[in-house]
Amino acid sequence: MERLWVNQAIEKIEADYQRSADTHLIKLDIPCLKDIDIYLKDESTHPTGSLKHRLARSLFLYALCNGWVKQGTPIIESSSGSTAVSEAYFARLLGLPFIAVMPKTTAKKKIQQIEFYGGECHFVDHSSEIYAESQRLADELSGHYMDQFTYAERATDWRGNNNIANSIFDQMKREPHPVPSWIVMSPGTGGTSATIGRYIRYQREETKLCVVDPENSVFYDYYHSLDPSVTCCNGSKIEGIGRPRAEPSFIAGVVDHMVKVEDAASIATIYWLEQLIGRKAGPSTGTNLYGALQLATQMQQENQKGSIVTLLCDGGERYLDTYYDEVWINDNIGDIGKYQTRLERFNQTGLLD
User: Which residue among 25, 57, 305, 324 has its CA within the 20 to 30 Å range from the CA of 154?
Assistant: First the structure.
């Protein structure tokens, strides 16, 4: 009976995947760039509204096939929001109880979405506390701690099989510059950058991977020092990315270049993007896109041609009371005017300086 339930659970997840089309690749209209094209892989169109839908599906399949999750197993996850929303969706699909352990500062809309899918939210004061508290709850409830920060890089088939990297390269085939010069990604678990970087190497593509890290995150420092003990006492203010420790799923060896992006730049960029495409995006998209614009500037200065692909990780509707609220921005991020001016100059010159 136990094996039958697992078989049926996997069948439900696979059927859910079969009902979903791939996400769109949006080409940005940026006249100031000459022979350099920038694309957004729009992950907000997944059923749960974010890039993390892919991860949650992979994590559930990985746990089921490893024998860690059985009928009635409580699922516990440490998350800043989007992964928990997606895991709550899959837990409901399989009829499993779900608890998300997250910082108290998580966006209200994400909390509401987790609860909409039948999940429960368990709050901690600081993002560094989510790991131990998740394991404690799993032990107490005889449940399974999904642990996205450890298993994200290994739960996805990075060689192909419709992963996000495979999808990007397939969708780029008919574009003017079909092999991207750069793919730009920000790390939360590090799993997506690991998948993209490994795929690039496995397929022997000339594309380079740039990882962009927000303030109050240690990935950038870890990339340069390779010191796994590096930590940060403050939590990232760009929800969904940046971590106070070097997560096991972040694989520095697949990254070609890393840059630090100031939080004010990330927020200014989502406002700039809204003017460009008429849609709101989440703050991590701002981090990604600002890094892509920096690379485009460098390519333009060096008279290079090519394409850059980055990710629209989730929609901005989840953040109306935070990143799209002027008072909240002033209190938590500060003045973004400098970067808004810089982006306005970029519109005229194609140079982000």
Answer: 25
The reply to whether domains 12-50+158-349 and 53-152 share a CATH topology is yes
DSSP-assigned letter for residue 43: G
By the 8 A CB rule, do 242 and 236 touch? yes
Return d(Cα 232, Cα 63) in angstroms, integer.
Answer: 30
At residue 81, the pLDDT reads 79
Stretch (H or E) spanning 171: helix 164-171
What's the CA gap between 36 and 286, in Å, rounded? Answer: 19
Sheet containing strand 208-214, strands side by side: 25-27, 36-42, 306-312, 182-185, 208-214, 257-261
pLDDT tens, position by position, 185-204 = 999 999 999 999 999 999 99
Distance of alpha carbon 34 from alpha carbon 22, whole angstroms = 29
CATH architecture for the domain at 12-50+158-349 = 3-Layer(aba) Sandwich (3.40)
Nearest to 311 by CA among 175, 193, 173, 144: 193
Torsions phi, psi for 215 (to 5 deg): -65, 160
User: 149 is written with which tokens?
Assistant: 């920060």
Q: Which residue ranges make up each domain of the chain?
A: 12-50+158-349, 53-152
Measured in whole angstroms, the distance separating CA 270 from the mean position of its chain's CA atoms is 15
pLDDT at 298: 97
Return d(Cα 224, Cα 230) in angstroms, integer. Answer: 11
Residue 234 gets which letter from DSSP?
S
Percent of the chain with pLDDT over 70: 99
Q: Which residues contact 153 (CB under 8 A, 6 or more apart)?
A: 189, 190, 191, 194, 195, 248, 249, 250, 251
User: What is each CA distance from 241 to 123, 224, 248, 250, in whole angstroms?
Assistant: 18, 18, 15, 12
Could you tell me how many helices (H) and strands (E) the chain has, helices first? 13, 10
